[in-house]
Amino acid sequence: MESPSESQGGRIFTVQDPERNIFDQRHLEYEVQQNGSPIPVFRLPYSQIAAQTSLASTPLRQLLFHPPNNPSQTFEAAVVYFRAGYGPSDYPDASAWEARYQIERSHAIKCPSILTQLAGAKKVQQVLATPDDSSNPSILSRFMTTSPSETTVLSKTFTNIFPLDTTPSGLHARKIALDPELCKGYVLKPQREGGGNNIYRTAIPPFLNSLPETHWKSYILMEIITPPPVHNTILRNGLVEKGGVICELGIYGTCLWDCNTKEILHNEEAGYLLRTKGDKSEEGGVAAGFGSMDSSILLNKY
User: Fold this and answer.
1) What does DSSP say about strands 75-82 and 63-65: parallel, antiparallel, or unpaired?
2) Contacts of 256 (CB under 8 A, 6+ apart)
3) In sequence order, what are the beta bridge partners of 162?
4) Beta-strand (E) ranges in the chain?
5) Which of 86, 3, 84 is nearest to 49 (CA)?
6) Half-sphere exposure of 182 (CA within 13 A, CB side)
7) Which among 199, 201, 203 has a CA at the least distance from the CA of 185?
8) For FRET with 257, which of 47, 120, 208, 264 sits at 20 to 30 Å CA-CA?
9) Considering the domain 7-113 in this protein, what is its CATH number?
10) Backbone angles phi, psi at 182, to 5 degrees
11) Which residues of the chain form CATH 3.40.50.1760?
């Protein structure tokens, strides 16, 4: 087996097996290999991480990838891009957690690292967006270097998000969630991604009552955002649908930093994702079949 110093560099995409959401992944693969880049890209099923990778016995702990079609060749993974590892089905047993731990311990750049992945969880959104109260002030100011007035302005762009724990904010949210009228303006969200996991409006009280109360704190309660619908045409599941639609705009960002010095090396906007769904649909996930990809047209209005 080659030593890390003799290994070629490579980039790994961890994927599900089978993978349904392959098309945008391929576009990213082609993009990073533009201009004749000599660094290959490997698609690695999440379930095969332990079998096809190892850690070098060096202080840097390089992540070494061993292609199944040529196990004698070794590539040092410079970047691991996670397109799997976000749902419970990716962690069926202890070996899957050990595989993730192996990557996290390695020298490879993780996109995202486990800490970055957790930072995007619904619970973190809730902690940042829960309205102030005297017993539980907002922690948003801890992450803002601007003046308190600018922090206040920023917080006004948030919708209300509450915990469902036993804090004053959580107890207030429980009353809303269990009230058959008040709950109509809210959505209950677990710590999941990908669409199809949320509980909406009048379905919230019976759902909570079906769970042990000790499980409630794993959910957050969010006030539903109701944008004005517009009329458009959607191609969804092979069918053309006409009628009212609602758009959701997401902004991509790229950030690279030194974990030891905390120095931010790169932090820039990197495009957008516009999802459009019918105005009668609660969910909006594209891969889950609820929404469609869209593009925007910016108009100047005078």
Assistant:
1) antiparallel
2) 109, 264, 265, 266, 267
3) 221
4) 8-15, 41-45, 53-55, 63-65, 75-82, 109-111, 161-163, 186-189, 199-200, 220-223, 230-236, 239-257, 264-278, 292-294
5) 84
6) 11
7) 201
8) 47
9) 3.40.50.1760
10) -65, -35
11) 7-113
d(C-alpha 148, C-alpha 52), whole Å: 50
Mean pLDDT for back-to-back runs of 10 residues, the chain (302 residues): 70 92 87 84 96 95 95 93 94 96 97 93 92 72 81 88 94 97 97 86 98 97 88 85 90 91 94 89 72 84 64
Where exactly does CATH 3.30.470.20 map onto the chain? 230-294
Looking up tokens 């731990």 gives 101
Whole-Å CA distances, 72 to 12, 65, 229: 18, 10, 58
Tokens 């930072």: give the residue: 119
The fold for domain 230-294 equals: D-amino Acid Aminotransferase; Chain A, domain 1 (3.30.470)
Q: How far apart are CA 111 and CA 116, in angstroms?
A: 8
Helix (H) or strand (E) holding 170: helix 168-178
Helix, coil or strand: residue 182:
helix
Pick from 207, 206, 205: nearest CA to 179: 205
Q: What one-character-per-residue DSSP string does 195-225 give?
A: SS--EEGGGHHHHHHTS-GGGGGG-EEEEPP
Contacts with 289 (C-beta within 8 Å, 6 or more apart), sequence order: 236, 237
Q: CATH 3.30.1490.50: does it fit domain 122-223?
A: yes
| Nearest residue to 5 via CA among 65, 53, 58 | 58
Contact 297, 267 (CB under 8 A): no
Length of the chain: 302
pTM of the predicted protein model: 0.86
